[in-house]
Fold this sequence. Notes:
Radius of gyration: 17 Å
Number of strands: 9
Oligomer: single chain
Strand content: 15-25%
Number of domains: 1
Amino acid sequence: MKISVITAVYNRRETIADALDSVFSQRNVDLESIVVDGNSTDGTSDVISQFGDQVSRSIREPDTGIYNALNKGLRVATGDVIGFLHADDWLADENVLADVVNLMSAPKVDGVYADLEYVDANDRNQVRRRWVSAAYDARRFRRGWMPPHPTVYFRREFYDQFGFFNEELRTAADYELLVRMMVRHRANMAYLPRVTVKMRVGGASNSSLTNRLNANRDDREAWLINEMKPPLGLRFTKPLRKLPQFLRR
């Protein structure tokens, strides 16, 4: 079973090597690495080129944002299973992808998700928050739950059948994708109870109050465009669900 890992990057010269090193250190896996660089101007492309043909497919051209870049990667991916690793993040250890493939090998499993750690931007050994998931129950989405999207992998046919990221939703495009795949189309999900991704703090959706308000608005839209009624109080329940993360340190 081949697994494709897509990394979108723009001007991340200081972190992209950590991300790609973690991908290429994976053991016992048939790997396809796709890197989509939106024409970085800070030397990011030079760092990527140092990995040579370890990068299965490298795209370097302007894009209209991260979801546009990720969709470019989806269009060229050939793996049976597809996931994403952002340029500021890294896979937690060398067995992550093998563990994902092991779960995805079950014929009735459409996707996998796991746990995530947020680490200090300047000290990758300093854990700031832990996002611990739970066994899957689609009903939890209506109570503000969602899995950490950087840990999610789906079978390729789910993207072929149900579509890519909705680029009009800005910072909520990942949330809408999960609602579409997991709630509307009832993907059969398996939970991998371990940390698979380490993420530097400072994600786009949380970087300012304005971005957070926009994300709340787009979260509601994610349900409407999937022809489902948005959960009552979503703007409150979704942030409240994150409170336990700050206690797991």
